[in-house]
Write a structure and sequence with these properties.
Number of strands: 12
Number of domains: 1
Radius of gyration: 20 Å
Low-confidence stretches: none
Shape: globular
Largest sheet: 8 strands, parallel, barrel
Number of helices: 14
Strand order of the largest sheet: 1-2-3-4-7-8-9-12
């Protein structure tokens, strides 16, 4: 099994100032810790991953809040490509409704050209959820499903052949040809995250590899993965499928030390997700295709404590042995061929993240690389 690391670039301690400013209150213009300092610090995650045997380095896309501050993951990874030598580079995810899919294909193709034959670019894509992000980018969130569906179809053509003819509601493309020309079919490197039934149906129908990024509970994420496998089979795509799975971790020499870190920083991460996605609000009840998240909002607006505890109660952390045990259980349950671990989140200092990551690389990662989880199979099989 492959093992990756992920860069988030969160400025968690700025949430109170940010939300006060959003409400129109008078606050300081700058966070107590600058965003640029966080960018500089978190490049250390990339350097550790490259030097200690991780298979890949991943990053994410978000806009406008302290949640995560990577606004263009392919641009970020192009820089990371220049300061690393060994790791593959992946996105988890590029949010397709916010982009022209032709430009996404061009950027992936160009990064692949820079990497050459020794390394891979892995394009994880998704549909998006944040109200502030759709609004700030002037994209109607009610159109997200149709834009997502059409973008996937355009990407599959361009990444497989370098050419595209497509006529849909949002995109009209006639005999388009990529330059630089493709050297190989890149569609095996296309993976897709889906957290709603609408998104899962699009991914399954298009037979795109499943990328699992838990935004709620791992149990619900596993149900979603199984639904994908069954819908994929129903659409006529034979056989099982591996997943790629994102997990949060914190590793220390003693359980007591690990628990202290997990209890603080994983709960902070959960809090940041609640705040970024406004999961205690009610705005999603009026947005087409987000009915599942609207139901989640209704529950969390009454009691968010299960969500706040969700990551620390279910993700792999602890001593190296404890982390291996839980990560193995999850890898086998999800039929995963790669886990992307998140080492720094919430207000965690880079020194603590680096210490946890280096211990993980020495004492956890070798055992996980020996795993060979079986793909998820449809129920009928």
């Amino acid at each position: 099994m492959r093992v990756g690391a992920t860069i988030f670039n969160q400025n968690y301690t700025d949430w109170d100032r940010y939300e006060a400013e959003e409400r129109g209150e008078t606050v300081g213009a700058k966070p107590s810790k600058s965003d640029r300092q966080i960018f500089t610090e978190e490049l250390e995650i990339a350097r550790i991953a490259d030097g200690t045997g991780f298979d890949a380095l991943w990053t994410i896309e978000h806009h406008f809040t302290p949640y995560t501050m990577v606004t263009n993951p392919l641009q970020y990874l192009t820089y990371v490509a220049g300061i690393t030598s060994n790791v593959d580079l992946g996105t988890m995810v590029v949010v397709l409704p916010w982009h022209n899919p032709v430009r996404v294909a061009e950027d992936v193709n160009m990064l692949d050209a820079f990497l050459g034959d020794g390394r891979e670019v892995i394009l994880g894509v998704g549909r998006g959820l944040g109200r502030r992000e759709f609004g700030g980018l002037n994209i109607d969130q009610n159109e997200s499903r149709s834009r997502f569906d059409e973008s996937l179809q355009v990407l599959k053509q361009l990444l497989s052949t370098g050419r595209c003819d497509y006529h849909g509601e949002h995109y009209q493309i006639d005999d388009l040809r990529l330059r630089p020309q493709l050297e190989r079919d890149l569609t095996p490197n296309l993976w897709c995250a889906g957290g709603t039934p609408d998104s899962v149906s699009v991914i399954a129908r298009n037979n795109v590899n499943p990328l699992i990024i838990p935004t709620t509970s791992l149990d619900l994420s596993l149900q979603t993965a199984r639904s994908y496998i069954d819908q994929r089979a129903a659409a006529g795509h034979a056989g099982g499928a591996n997943t790629k799975l994102a997990l949060w971790t914190y590793v220390a020499e003693t359980e007591e030390e690990a628990r202290a870190g997990a209890e603080q920083y994983m709960v902070e991460y959960s809090d940041s997700a609640l705040r970024h996605y406004e999961l205690r609000g009610d705005h999603l009840k009026d947005v087409k295709g987000y009915e599942m998240y609207a139901a989640t909002q209704a529950v969390l607006s009454k009691d968010a404590s299960p969500f706040l505890r969700g990551f620390v109660d279910s993700h792999p952390w602890g001593t190296p042995d404890q982390t291996i045990k839980r990560a193995t259980e999850l890898a086998e349950a999800f039929g995963t061929n790669e886990i992307m671990f998140i080492f720094k989140y919430g207000s965690m200092p880079i020194e603590k993240a680096a210490k946890s990551m280096e211990l993980f690389a020495r004492e956890v990662m070798p055992a996980l690389k020996e795993l060979k989880p079986a793909p998820l199979e449809p129920v009928a099989a």
